[in-house]
Automatic annotation (TrEMBL):
GO terms for molecular function: ADP-dependent NAD(P)H-hydrate dehydratase activity; ATP binding; kinase activity; metal ion binding; NAD(P)HX epimerase activity. Homotetramer. This is Bifunctional NAD(P)H-hydrate repair enzyme. Its cofactor is K(+); Mg(2+). Keywords: ATP-binding, Isomerase, Kinase, Lyase, Metal-binding, Multifunctional enzyme, NAD, NADP, Nucleotide-binding, Potassium, Transferase. It catalyses: (6S)-NADHX + ADP = AMP + phosphate + NADH + H(+); (6S)-NADPHX + ADP = AMP + phosphate + NADPH + H(+); (6R)-NADHX = (6S)-NADHX; (6R)-NADPHX = (6S)-NADPHX. In the C-terminal section; belongs to the NnrD/CARKD family. In the N-terminal section; belongs to the NnrE/AIBP family. Pfam families: Carb_kinase (PF01256), YjeF_N (PF03853). The keyword NADP applies. The lineage of its organism: Archaea, Methanobacteriati, Methanobacteriota, Methanomada group, Methanococci. Its EC number is 4.2.1.136, 5.1.99.6. The keyword NADP applies. (6S)-NADPHX binds at residues 73-77, 153-159, 164, 187, 262, 327, 375, 431. The gene is nnrE. Binds 1 potassium ion per subunit.
Length: 490
């Protein structure tokens, strides 16, 4: 499929799958990171965010401005707002060395310099007792005062901890007692702060409680649909103290008398990420696998058929994800196996290659627990009319449509992956992609696993293109997977 066709398909899908106008903090973090992947610096976004808050409040009459800043980028926005206001009092909740990011630190440093010569005042507190005096004084304040909440934004995790909890309670109490206090939240209200105004960036957040004003801060819409390192950073992290099996258990069901290489490629690529990888196939394949890392399950015959379904289902109970189809061959036996297995399997399944061709789509239900990885020819047999919104509406499965650019979509989201090159057209790279996605799917949801699998597979190919030109092999791609994971600290 040429790029023109891919982009046509992609635009049809974007026309049907509408962008969400309210997003989760996790979705915002991916967009934020992918804006940087596209070359837009975070410090620019912070500047635009802080300036957009200033623009919204500059015409509200006030004589005092008190900005409570946290140690994350929400606090960083607060530092920018302070600079634009000019005569603000900044209260950093934490020590300067606690400030978490380069962008926020840079803005704090600027404020510190200004505070030596201008009207900016900075205080650093660790406990709420240290601001008792300010709240006492504000209780009887008869000057209009704007309190700006740049404490915590989309980085909030769990219930509000001290001293934020007490500070929020004190601001809420103060507001009730003194009508001269006006509270503005940056991006997201911290805890149950009773803000009068919330200015949020790029899109409303699911955790916004008030009618937030949405301000554009320079994030292009492309950051919402081009797969980037932001998607990789959203993957579940490998815990340091994790024990065997926690990082994924994958069962590869494939192979046949003619094809034994495919399930091996799938298994070897899965093994680069998952803890346990098993292969379920006919003994003609199993006996050719001399990889000690694999757990092997063999059955008699040239092809998997319905007589093997019970055993395959029993074995699959021990695994998180099944990768189904690689090298199965297409005939009446394997057709019976695939349709019966899928109708009874309760596991997450990556459906690839021959399995895509073998499914009877007439009554088929596209479950959320399925990821399909077709190329355009296989996709055309899946009975999905892309230009028919009804057909897309019921598509709970994730589709990774492989091409010069990969399109990843389900009934809610569509993204495009631009990593990869013509060297990946070789036979076997599809088996590798299925193995990567199967391993990621163990601990991540389907859409994210599909996006990241496509990105990792393509990026491995891009690294190889630089080293070897187009003439690298599928085994080279498998060996490159750990390098990609290391580059992006997955
Ligand atoms: N999304 C964008 O395009 C931009 C967002 N900006 C601003 O960045 C924040 C998100 O920043 P982040 O560093 O990820 O996290 P936060 O600052 O929101 O919070 C982290 C901070 O808060 C502490 N913390 C987290 N949970 C709790 C809790 N339950 N109790 C106490 N403390 C908590 C944590 O320890 C950190 O110190 C976003 O909202 C925007 O305001 C960019 O500046 C512009 C682009
Ligand atoms: K906030």
């Amino acid at each position: 499929m040429v790029v023109g066709e891919i982009m046509d398909l992609f635009n049809i899908l974007r026309g049907i799958i509408k962008d969400k106008d309210t997003i989760t903090p996790k979705e915002m973090a991916i967009i934020d990171e992918n804006a940087e992947y596209l070359g837009i610096k975070k410090i620019l976004l912070m500047e635009n965010a802080g300036k957009s808050v200033y623009e919204e409040i500059k015409d509200i009459y006030a004589e005092n401005y008190i900005i409570f800043c946290g140690t994350g980028n929400n606090g960083g926005d607060g530092f920018v707002v302070a600079r634009h206001i000019g005569n603000a009092e900044v209260i950093l909740i934490g020590r300067e060395q606690d400030i978490k990011t380069h962008e926020a630190r840079e803005n704090f440093k600027i404020l510190k310099t200004l505070s030596e010569f201008g009207d900016i005042k900075i205080r650093q507190i660790l406990r709420v007792e240290e601001v008792e005096g300010i709240f006492k004084q504000l209780e009887n304040e008869n000057k209009k005062t704007i309190i700006i909440d740049a404490m915590i934004g989309t980085g909030v995790k769990g219930d509000l901890r001290e001293p934020y909890k007490s500070i929020v309670e004190k601001i809420n109490t103060l507001k009730k007692r003194n009508k001269n206090i006006f509270v503005v939240s940056v991006d997201v209200e911290t805890g149950n702060l009773d803000s009068d105004l919330t200015i949020t960036f790029h899109k409303r957040k699911t955790i916004n409680r008030k009618n937030a004003i949405v301000k554009e801060i320079g994030i292009p819409k492309e950051a919402e649909y081009i797969v980037g390192w932001g998607d990789l950073k959203a993957l579940k992290k490998r815990e340091k103290d994790s024990h065997k099996g926690q990082n994924g258990k994958v069962l590869i069901i494939g192979g046949s008398r003619e094809f034994y290489g495919a399930p091996i490629l799938t298994g070897l690529s899965s093994l680069k990420i998952a803890d346990l990888v098993a292969v379920f196939s006919v003994n003609k394949v199993i006996n050719k696998i001399n990889h000690p890392e694999f757990i092997l399950y063999g059955v008699e015959g040239d092809y998997l058929s319905s007589q093997h379904v019970d055993y395959a289902l029993k074995v699959s109970e021990k695994y998180d994800v099944v990768v189904l189809g690689n090298g199965l061959s297409v005939n009446s036996k394997t057709r019976a196996f695939v349709n019966e297995f899928l109708s009874r399997c309760e596991k997450k399944v990556v459906i690839d290659a021959d399995a895509i061709k073998l499914i009877d789509y007439a009554e088929f239900e596209f479950l959320e627990s399925y990821i399909f990885t077709p190329h355009i020819g296989e996709f055309k047999r899946m009975n999905l009319e892309l230009d028919n919104p009804k057909s897309i509406k019921n598509l709970k499965s994730t589709i990774v449509l492989k091409g010069e650019k990969d399109i990843i979509f389900n009934n809610e989201m569509v993204k495009i992956n631009k990593t990869g090159n013509a060297g990946l057209t070789k036979g076997g790279t599809g088996d590798i992609l299925a193995g990567i996605i199967g391993a990621l799917f163990s601990n991540n949801e389907a859409f994210l696993s599909g996006c990241c699998g496509a990105f990792i597979n393509g990026y491995a190919g891009d690294l190889l293109l630089k080293e070897k030109g187009f003439y690298y092999t599928p085994m080279d791609v498998i060996d490159k997977i750990p390098h990609v994971l290391k580059i992006f600290e997955i």
